[in-house]
Amino acid sequence: MSAHEYDHGHTFAGWVGCAIGSVAAAVAGAGVVMVSGLLIAGGTAIGVVALLVTWALHLAGWGKGPGLRPREEWAWRVRDSSAPGGHDECLGCRLAGRRRPAALGGAVPVRAGGESEVAAAAAGADSAR
């Protein structure tokens, strides 16, 4: 039995990205304390690397898409079985050209007020919590 009853989203991509991001924050923070533009720029560059590494690991199946995963995939060392096809409503997958939301058949319809139906559905889901 698991120690927790919820899918907290702990993934290999998340842990690696957080570790690299922590180094980036430490380097940039040291740059602020030492008044060094070079260290601040270095910390910023390491932060960009953290973002790219996390995205690459997510696309390789070591991350997770929005929502809950099957219980068998809750452990952080388990690869995401749905990653090769992309995740619905996942910005990272859409930026990589993986897929659009399946419920909309690839298109994003827009309401008369200019708000997309995806955004309206997301807002409705958030307000129900």
Give a structural overview.
- The chain starts with 11 loop residues before the first helix and ends with a helix.
- It has helices at residues 12-33, 37-62, 91-95, 117-127.
- It is an all-alpha fold.
- The longest helix has 26 residues, at 37-62.
Topology:
Elements lengths: L11 H22 L3 H26 L28 H5 L21 H11 L2
Helix pairs in contact: 1-2
Uncertain spans, ≥5 residues at pLDDT below 50? 106-129
Number of helices: 4
Mean pLDDT: 77
Structural class: mainly alpha
Using the CA coordinates, give the radius of gyration: 18 Å
Q: Strand fraction band? A: under 5%
Choose one word for the global shape. elongated
Proportion of residues in helical segments: 40-55%
| Largest sheet: number of strands, sense, barrel closure | none
* Topology as a string of helices (H) and strands (E): HHHH
Distance between the termini: 27 Å
Features:
mainly alpha, 4 helices, 129 residues, single chain, disordered C terminus
Structure summary:
This protein has 129 residues and is mostly helical. It is built from 4 helices and no strands. The two termini are 27 Å apart.
